[in-house]
């Protein structure tokens, strides 16, 4: 947590930018797994935490710009609570920690809001938010505030020095977690055994995971949460995992490494294509550059590499324009990162990653690019190109004229069970370019094979 | 998962017992942590899983007794899904696995229900259930079905042989997880470092946790999810943790062990009181016995032990009747266990643990006893007595006449920082008594000290 002044200044900036009305920021509640009181680990709403700092359930923050009043709503502690949870600081003393001097019990929220004639709230992403907002506003159809979304996105997109330090901490934890798994994985293990090392590391260091660990020999399945496969000698393992520090900032990295001591020839070739793409994309990052253009540059670099391998042919620019590369790279190059691993995703990708002038594309490939707009110093983002061989996609496009023009299907058919490769780092945009965050983690073929050979 | 016949028979029994109407059973959805698509690990609703077996999100089961029809509602897979999640079995083939031959898309649920004139559903415990039920029934105030609750509780309370085998598996995993932590913990570690070994074990063995690990040197705080304390030489560590197997059955055990190689004299004395109570309570379990009476027997045993130590005095029966023992034992002796660690808790403790004739008490102590009713063969439950020294409670009762009659406050004041002890095992009620489930785990002072001495 930062000091009270930080939160006060953040709220002050929000007030000034928004200019009027009443801002209602919902903290999260405990979430029941299979019954109400069997709780998942608590994750606070990141916007609430950005302005009100507290990492506890059942709080609501109000910034009443018109009355120039900030209030923290929360539960009152009962004597029974002391028996079950031990003595806790009072709501008032919690509020003081984040520079708020007015507190009220949760039961008073609806009454308080009844007086507001210009209520701003964010889009609900948990059903509990929906229910609360319905109950407090008396409306069935909610109307999240676009001005509030835009103001918050503008403010949170530029990370302060203190925030960048926290993110750097999260990325270093993330990097060490990856290193630990790279040393731990062995042929014959199940994916969940390997994943357990990442999960152990997060808990052992007093952190949370910033998202569920992706730990798979089937890297071509992009959202793969299944962990039942056994690691075989010639497999690659793709680990996409990140730490969320106690202060609430996320890291997010991906590495792909051989289960054996070395990559196979085919793996090595395509790994190098992804790595070259990764380096080229990172080198292109600088203020003013559209991230969409960095993505397209990466697509061209990837296409060039695939042409060299023989899996693609034809003119690179035409291939990318026609979307031919999406046979191998179906998703976006990266996303904003901060207190959320996909920063502010619940506020809407159009607002976070694009502008009114630059709308998000609906084309396959580009529609999965979460960030498109011009970069600014203080942005923190990921760069994560990949090659994914999806048999279903090969079959789907086999008779497609455009695909035939650029894809070597005969060769590709021999890659059907190749799997997937992704390499991902986290960077901050600086005045002159960008800087990779966190402790370096093996990435070149030589480095990756060295750490595996040492481990085995 | 069991075979299709099992689920068909379970639904058949429900139909016969309930006699008529339309039963709507909601599976769970994925739950977002800090934005919608950043999911917590998936936990299925246990009742849905009991009757429909499937451990996937976004499914709804309908048992239409009047039309003699069973339908599984679910999502249809799109081409995009294949790219992101890989090919999945169709809804129809999933349904076949659990003996259901009719499937419909989720979008048709409201229409289907519109024809029902006797709709039965369970109390919502996740906000998503509330929103769905409101949308599908058109009602703001929901009316869960008491006959459905009672029928399901009656059916699920008696575990089948196959279920007991699954629970035994969960308890054995749980026991091994505890053993591993008992060997792992060291002076100077943070509680979260110790907890990481339990969490690692669950994931490494391909299981989930049945509830968030309690791993604390402050065992007197009953719902302690804080893990920031450092283990000191004379501390005891209380570990309350359980495994949920892939088949969806829970284990739940607690052990309290010294951070050093041996208990201190004071710890040893009170540990033995808890252990004697634990043994006496387990020995009393048999069909026909009220679990409430087992709880009261345990309270008397505990009081006898505390009298011997010198912390209590006076007549044991009178002390327990007056609730004096709740200075040390504030909660219930145990609870039902099955697919939920507190089995069926979302259906209501009154219905699961009590009867219309035996209402749950509102007295301090007894009001936290989740199970009171007469035991039957096939019940699976926990026995978990404890001693918890809560300084705030001492101060609260210091001037209480009844407390003064039974409590040695002068001595108790020297125990203010003692902490807490709990010992918990899982048992099944048999025709003649009960049987402890799972692989035995050190419990006597000699056994516990031996495993610690070996480890250190």
From TrEMBL, chains A, B:
What keywords does the record list, in alphabetical order?
Aminopeptidase, Hydrolase, Manganese, Metal-binding, Protease
Under Enzyme Commission nomenclature, its number is: 3.4.11.9
For this protein, the record's Pfam families field holds: AMP_N, Peptidase_M24
Metal-binding found in the keyword field: yes
Q: Which reaction does it catalyse?
A: Release of any N-terminal amino acid, including proline, that is linked to proline, even from a dipeptide or tripeptide
**Biological process, per Gene Ontology:** proteolysis
- Protein name per UniProt: Xaa-Pro aminopeptidase
- According to its UniProt entry, this protein's organism is Pontibacter burrus
